[in-house]
Structures are given as C-alpha cells and as structure tokens.
C-alpha cells in the first residue's frame, strides 16, 4: 500500500512528509483492518509533522479523522462488525481501562493513552488499524468527506463547549475559525447560544456569518458584547489575554488545542479577577464521541470540507498552516 510518513519533522515548507510504499498491516486479535476512503487533515497532524509535538513513533503515518470500510479483523473481535461496514477512526486509540481516570469516566486523562497518527500509524495511507473497542459508528446521511472532520474537529469542539460551561442561551466567543470551530458553532447555535467569532481570514469570517454568527471581527479584536464563555481554537497564546478580557464576570475560556504558543504575562485584575476561569481541553472520551455523533445524526450539520487528492497531503497541510482552508480539509484516498 501507499502511505505518507513523517520522516523529518520540521517546517512544512521543508517537505517533512514522504510518500512511500508500505506493507498492508495485519490486525492484532482485538483490531479491525480498515480500507481508508478519506482522512481529515487536522491541525494536530500539522503539529506532528512540524515537530511541535514530540516524536512518539519515528516515521509515523499521520491522520486521525479516518472514514473507511472494514476489510478484516482479529480473532478476538466480537460480533457487531461485518465486511464493508463504514466506520470511523478518531484521535483516541487506546486507554488502560484500569487507572483512576478511566474508572471515573475520564479516560481522556489516562496516563497510558495512545493516539492515532502519533503513537501508531494513522490514516494518511490506504489501510489503517483500529482496536474494535475504539472504532466509531457513523451517522447516516453524510458523505465520507463530510464525516471525516466530525471524528476529531467535531468531537473536540463538542468537548470544548462542555469545558467552556456555556450557559443556556449564553454568549459564546470563538477565537480562530477552522474545522473544529465551524462545527462547534453549529452545536452552540442549535442550543440557543449567541455566537461571536474572532478570526483572521476573510473566507473564515464569511463562513461564520453564513452559519449564523451574530458578529465577526479580527482575531484579537474585542467582541461587541461581554462573553459568558469562549473557546480558543487557534494555537496562538497571544490571544489568551484578549479572550480573557472579553469574558464577563464568572466566564470561562477553554483552550481547545493540543499545542499552544507561549501565553504572555497575565494581569490578575484585568484577566482573571471576578472569577474568570482559564482551562485546557485534553483529547476526548468515547462517551464524548458517541454523544456528538448522535447529535450529528439528529441535527444535520453543514460540514465545509475542502477535498484534496491523496497525493496532495503536503499541500493540504501547507494550506492549513497558511490559513487558506475555510472549514475543514480532507484527503480523498
């Protein structure tokens, strides 16, 4: 099979990805072998490729928003999967199941967790493996290209909304408007929120307005009203102070990315006083995934998916880095 490997982590302009020939993987007893149809292009893939995340597996195949069909499985996989079933593979690949976090329903914090496209090969290839217990059933009514961004961008945005503690009918600020944000906004609007978007790209601002945002402005500009909650999707630490300043008393800012550039010095009274909160979002649980995919099945989401051919993986990541993608990007395998 053909796949893309991160051979030399570094700036995407240095072409750290190589397209190579690889053997088709053999499923372990608890795994499914999936023929990849499409794979979403996530900003975390960019962090892995550019070395902003430490190398966990040399020459890893990135990609963790995988839509494909089951073609084989290991001997310990129970009933429930059949040949040709369309399933999804997400970021969270494995947890220990026995630590205090797993037992408390907080498996996203498991110290032994492993991740698709970082610890093990992901979906920038013609075939991929997934433990059956971590494979996702997908809602009907969506094209493959529309489903792929749901598997990380959608799930993480859904968890970020929960972490932001947005009150019913509250005012939500979104900083950065890419694949995850354009889905989270739709969930928030469906729940009656008023949404204000701060982002740099003209196309992203237009998409936000089309989806129902009440206002759009520059990435660091103040919104027109105080915010009850905010989510920072852009991996830009310098946006943390203006986002905190935009919060009303008791508001929460949730930082949704796995990587963030350094945060400037905060002023206690201006940024945190009056019970403003700053918190991170770390991966997701399978319960998060099930809830969000059920929501997507019940509420038809508009997924803006920009398709790239499989041979254009490096161009897709470059466009993502340069802010040229409005919505999400997907590789069609």
Automatic annotation (TrEMBL):
GO molecular-function term, one example from the UniProt record: oxidoreductase activity
UniProt cross-references to InterPro entries, sorted A to Z: ADH-like_C (IPR013149), ADH-like_N (IPR013154), ADH_Zn_CS (IPR002328), ADH_Zn_typ-2 (IPR014187), GroES-like_sf (IPR011032), NAD(P)-bd_dom_sf (IPR036291)
EC class name: oxidoreductase
Family matches, as SUPFAM superfamilies: GroES-like, NAD(P)-binding Rossmann-fold domains
Location of region: Disordered: 1-24
Domain Alcohol dehydrogenase-like N-terminal span(s) in chain numbering: 29-140
Alphabetized UniProt keyword annotations: Metal-binding, Oxidoreductase, Zinc
Every Alcohol dehydrogenase-like C-terminal domain range: 182-295
Family: Belongs to the zinc-containing alcohol dehydrogenase family.
Protein name as it appears in the record: alcohol dehydrogenase
Species assigned in the record: Rhodococcus kronopolitis
Species lineage: Bacteria, Bacillati, Actinomycetota, Actinomycetes, Mycobacteriales
